[in-house]
Amino acid sequence: MILHKGETLFRQGESGPLYHVKSGLLKINRVHADGTLTLVNVIVPDEIIPHHSLLSPNPYYGTAVALVTCEIEVLSAQQWYLELEHNHAKCREIALQLQGKLRMMQQRIDQLSEVSPAEKLNKLQQWFQSFVPVASLSEVLTQDEIGQFIGLRRETVNRLLRAQAQASKE
To answer: How many whole angstroms from its chain centre is CA 71?
Structure first.
């Protein structure tokens, strides 16, 4: 299936199939009890989601929205879990996928642990460029989402993006 930028793949709290992201990027937003929306993850090509349901079913943790046009393969949950019971190699494959996601999260921690806000933003921009070439990170994420992802206030993100734009003009 093709999912276009801004379209929703699944919603927080619902249950359903698993998905293989063949191409594109998705964001996972979580709505808290007070209505606050938080960007909690970015899903990249070749991931099977939701991660917390790879071994056993659970309702969706957040809402998945396409950041760019995505090609998505729908995987039957019933068939997925049945195959896990009979195919131990599949369990190893899932463990390796989760290991890859942990390594990606380690990269995110490196981004967050940068002292300089500008360097945090630069590292996030480089990371995004490795998956989808965009002229500006603002093409795929709002300034609030960028700030949530790297632990900065929206105003700081705005100032940094303006400074980058000014520097590129010079």
So the answer is: 15
